[in-house]
Amino acid sequence: MIPLSHYLIVSAILFSIGSAGVFMRRNLITILLSIEIMLNAVNLSFVAFGRANGTVDGQILTFFVMTVAAAEAAVGLAIVIGLFRHRESLNPDAFTSLKW
Amino acid sequence: MAETLLFYLLSALAIGTAALVIGQRNPMYSVMLLIASFGALSGLYVQLDAPFVAVAQIIIYAGAIMVLFLFVVMLLNAPQEDGATWDRTHPLRQPGVGRFGLLLAALLIVQLAWALSRVGQLDAAVGARGDAQAIASVRALGRVLFTDYMFAFEATSLLILVAMVGAVVLARREGDQ
Q1: How many CB atoms lie under 10 A from the CB of residue B173?
Q2: Helix extents (H) in chain B
Q3: pLDDT of residue B107
Q4: What CATH number is given to the structural domain containing A79?
Q5: Is residue A100 domain-resident?
Q6: Counted domains in chain A
Q7: Which of B37, B85, B160 sits opposite A67 (nearest CB)?
Q8: What is the ipTM of this complex?
Q9: Within a domain: A68
Q10: What SS3 class is residue A77?
Q11: What is the pLDDT of residue B89?
């Protein structure tokens, strides 16, 4: 059987990949995708902890995280579309000023 | 034995495709690779006796959220990053600062691995406690969701309403009534 720590290590690596994507990429859509990777890493650790404790609470929390991810994607992509209309760019460096 | 092999295969697939997601320059390929990563993760959920979460992962994440992303990628039609056209003299665009994000991510991995190595009781097999049948049943899941987590569930519906209204307001063209 697989120990709990293995799942947590996979989750930690996925979370680190997501945070590296947020820091390094210069594309708003890829940054939003990296946030989704991080949310999924957290989901994995929720389910793994829930299974290790023998309860369903971890799975329940996963549903709430999925709902928040869906809401975040909808609002975030709407903001991306709005920004792209103003500057014709997806580079976050193009949006350094709040007023234009 | 086959179970262990499957775990490492799915984990490698999930991590490898996630790493490729942030390595791609074309967001279209990123979205496709992320769908593959979510598929591998849903396989891990099946191994953790959470088949309903696995199905929800495929339907909601790969089916709904990623299609929304694909829709926006196709709508904006901006396949490449335009890194060269924007100001290179910005304080955040210096080469040293550019590497700083990678350093922070590596530091995060080290920190998480160290924290995991310090916590005891993690070497027990993950499926040792609890009844796998009871945990995997949708009936038990629904009962807990609609009793213990009732308030959170209702608050979630409000969140979705706010997100829906917010998305419509934000994506509306200025001047439209």
Answers
A1: 7
A2: 2-23, 27-47, 51-56, 66-76, 95-118, 132-136, 138-145, 150-171
A3: 86
A4: 1.10.287.3510
A5: no
A6: 1
A7: B160
A8: 0.90
A9: yes
A10: helix
A11: 59
At B70, list the tokens: 């694909």
- Extract the tokens encoding A71: 């809401």
Cα A20–chain centre separation: 12
Residue numbers in A near B11 (CB within 8 A): 6, 10
* Tens digit of each residue's pLDDT (9 = 90 or more) over B51-100: 999 999 999 988 899 999 999 998 887 666 555 555 555 666 666 776 77
More confident residue, B80 or B28: B28
Average pLDDT, chain B: 84
Lowest mean pLDDT among A15-24, A41-50, B156-165: A15-24
Selecting from A2, A20, A33 the residue whose C-beta is nearest the C-beta of B125 gives: A2
Q: State how far residue A2 is from chain B, nearest Cα, in angstroms.
A: 5
The whole-angstrom distance between A90's CA and the closest CA on chain B is: 7
Q: Which domain holds residue A73?
A: 4-95
